[in-house]
Design a protein that fits this description.
With about 270 residues, the chain is an alpha+beta fold. It has 11 helices and 7 strands. The strands form 2 sheets. Strands 3-4-2-1-5 form a 5-stranded mixed β-sheet. Strands 6-7 form a two-stranded antiparallel ribbon.
Length: about 270
């Protein structure tokens, strides 16, 4: 495994705490963690002072475990402990979700904060994920993700939760990225999305002001809606709805490749 990447939003103490929990999971559950990363606002680049730590991982069990007539549980979830939230997917579940397709695995693999990382396996997972989840699948995913949050938490309200606001702005930025750079996977990090999407200076300034407010407020912090940001969100989601109309995101022809990768990861 490569050296772990540190990030200013994860203190060395918390990093070691999470890594210790992950190693205990490997022993207790008899699994091999293929990679473990930080998801959520800390990895996305807009944490609040009291943001949770959202550690996510993908693991594999010994080959014989998958040969049982009775399917076993395909997730490992630790009880939330204070601000620490750790859970993971079995590799079989991860690949099946990817084939739906669900680009979450691709996003996890692009996290800037890594706790555990098997170089060889992650390179193969990344390459396969990009084949499955790029293009229409990503558009469908980010449109559904952001559109649902908009309907529930923003539309019709004068003041909004800053955390939820960013949960909508980031998918809109990802749509903008794919609109302008269709051959490139959108990055997970908010700042990288802003830098690579050719936004007007007035919008960048508004986003920066919102980011500063988010960094200073608690998870429940609220603020008035910002018209220029709302207009941007609506424009990008409207474009995505038209772009995905009639396009199927599924890639069933890649199931045989997924099976082969699954067997390779298990060692046989």
């Amino acid at each position: 495994m490569t050296a772990i990447q540190f990030n200013p939003s994860i203190s060395p103490v918390m990093h070691d705490t999470i890594l210790d929990q992950l190693r205990q999971i490997e022993v207790r559950e008899n699994v091999r963690i293929l990679f473990a990363i930080e998801s959520g606002s800390r990895a996305w680049g807009f944490p609040s002072p009291d943001s949770d730590y959202d550690a996510r991982f993908v693991y594999a069990r010994p080959r014989d475990w998958y040969l049982s007539l009775e399917p076993g549980r395909d997730v490992i979830e630790l009880p939330i402990d204070g601000d620490l939230d750790i859970n993971g997917w079995d590799i079989k579940k991860a690949l099946n979700l990817l084939l739906k397709p669900n680009p979450v695995l691709l996003e996890w693999l692009s996290s800037p904060i890594r706790y555990m990382w098997d170089d060889a396996i992650c390179a193969k997972l990344t390459n396969f994920s990009e084949r499955v989840a790029h293009g229409p699948a990503c558009l469908h995913h980010y449109l559904h993700l952001g559109g649902r949050q908009w309907d529930v938490y923003i539309d019709g309200k004068e003041r909004v939760n800053l955390k939820k606001y960013f949960y909508i702005v980031r998918p809109a930025l990802a749509v903008r990225w794919m609109r302008r750079r269709p051959d490139e996977i959108p990055p997970m990090n908010f700042q990288d999305l802003v830098a690579g999407t050719e936004l007007p200076e007035t919008l960048v300034s508004a986003l920066n002001e919102l980011l500063i407010a988010k960094s200073r407020s608690k998870e429940i912090g609220e603020a008035p809606r910002v018209e220029i940001i709302d207009e941007f969100i609506v424009e990008e989601f409207d474009w995505a709805r038209e772009a995905t109309r009639g396009i199927r995101a599924e890639r069933p022809e890649l199931r045989a490749d997924a099976d082969a990768l699954f067997r390779e990861i298990l060692g046989g």
